[in-house]
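One thing: can you check what follows?
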Amino acid sequence: MPAQTMMTRLASMPWIMLACAANPMPAHAEECLQEKAIYVDMDNAYELRFEPMGSESSVSNRFKLAVRNTAILAEGIVMRGDDQLRADGRIMFECPEGDVTGADLRACTVWQGMVYASDLKGHIRALPAQGESAADRLFLPALGPAIQKSSLWGKGKATVAPWDVLSLKGCNQ
């Protein structure tokens, strides 16, 4: 098809269709529960997948963090503060099994901090609990620098630091 004809056809297309073709819309948060949400960083180098929890746990959310193109899979948890508004997260890698000391946990902790949720307009709120609609974005402050200083980093492991903001990619079924 000649370029002139192609441009004429494109000019007649509604702009919204063109915008959607160039930028696929993200998964809709209201259609996905937080415990099934899948997030990726801006470079698509990291994937964070939430998993359902049992009801009898002090942990409010559980997830796995995968480093793309590697076999690296870290475990993550979120625990709520007494006010239920604060979501304290922790990412751990190769932690020992069974009875562990505080020193053991510190040694295998890759990142620890507050986990914030955001909608597409940038309004910050607490991470949704299990059973609630998934957040559009997650903010894990200083995640990238923490990974660079951790046992996840190095040859055969992570070599690209993630962004601190992860966007909803999809939903586990």
Notes: The chain has one domain: 3-171.
